[in-house]
Amino acid sequence: MGTPLRLFGGISSACILEDIPPYRVGCQVPRMIEGRPGVRADAEARRDRLVEAGRILFADRGYDVPLEAVAEAAGVGIATLYRNFPTRLDLKLAILADGLHRSRRTLDELLVQVDEDPDGAMTRLTQMFVSLQLGALIPIIVRDQDLIPSELIDARKGNLASVGEILERAKSHGVVRESVTARDFFAGVALITRPLPALIADPMMDGTITASELTVRVLAIFVAGLRP
After folding, report:
1. Higher pLDDT pick, 63 / 12
2. Among the listed residues 155, 191, 190, 184, the one whose alpha carbon sits nearest the alpha carbon of residue 167
3. Peptide bond into 149 cis (omega under 30)
4. CATH of region 2-86
5. How far apart are CA 191 and CA 136, in angstroms?
6. Which of 68, 79, 119, 146 has a CA between 20 and 30 Å from the CA of residue 18?
7. 21-30, 85-94, 116-125, 157-166: which range is least confident on average?
8. Distances in Å between the alpha carbon of 57 and those of 40, 94, 100?
9. Beta bridge partners of 26
10. Which tens digits make up the pLDDT trace of 35-73?
């Protein structure tokens, strides 16, 4: 059995994360990669699994997780990982680029949706960053900033600007209070999505709720608090 991996905007990927060790990622992909002439579908699929496995393991176990664990989770050998990503930084940059690309598409859709369905747009915006595991990945994103290519920095700035615009337009529709800033929004989502395994393991907790369930509940409270 396995769990579908969640991508941005609450959308399920074609990948499954096994529920038992070694937590391999399995993906179903089309035989031909549209728009990527000369790239074999199986090679592209292996790379995609490595990026997805890296994102999950970096978030769950930190930036220093052994790359062998990433390769194992992706179901490939360590040589395949190094062939695609010669350094840990290369893998990090691929994860960042993938996240920026996917979130850009969602943000473009939300810039339209926010005027038609502001409540739904705010919910989807929040879900996007939860799926990204923002709280777990921020320390990795900001690490080695001087080594991040300018085009990725510019893309991140563009995405952040779009979030700010969505918030401002949501305010104009009366679904977000005027005092809320983009910084408030990011800080809230980041804090809520930060891994806190010790909290779940605390014997004072009732033990009947999982970390993901608790995140959803607290996030709902946060989103409600954004309203006027």
Report:
1. 63
2. 184
3. no
4. 1.10.10.60
5. 9
6. 79
7. 21-30
8. 26, 14, 18
9. 16
10. 455 557 888 899 999 999 998 888 878 888 999 999 999
Interatomic CA distance for residues 52 and 58, integer angstroms? 10
> Helix 88-116 and helix 41-61: axis angle, to 10°?
90
Model pTM score: 0.72
End-to-end CA distance of the chain: 43
Strands 12-18 and 25-27: antiparallel
Inter-helix orientation angle 211-226/182-192, to 10°: 160
CA 15-117-168 angle, to 5 degrees, is 100
Contact by Cβ (8 Å): 50, 91 = yes
202's tokens: 């605390």
Q: Say whether 102-226 and 2-86 share the same fold.
A: no
The encoded tokens of residue 25 equal 């990622």
Structural domain boundaries in the chain: 2-86, 102-226
Q: Classify domain 102-226 by CATH number.
A: 1.10.357.10
Can you say how many angstroms the Cα of residue 142 is from the centroid of all Cα atoms in its chain? 15
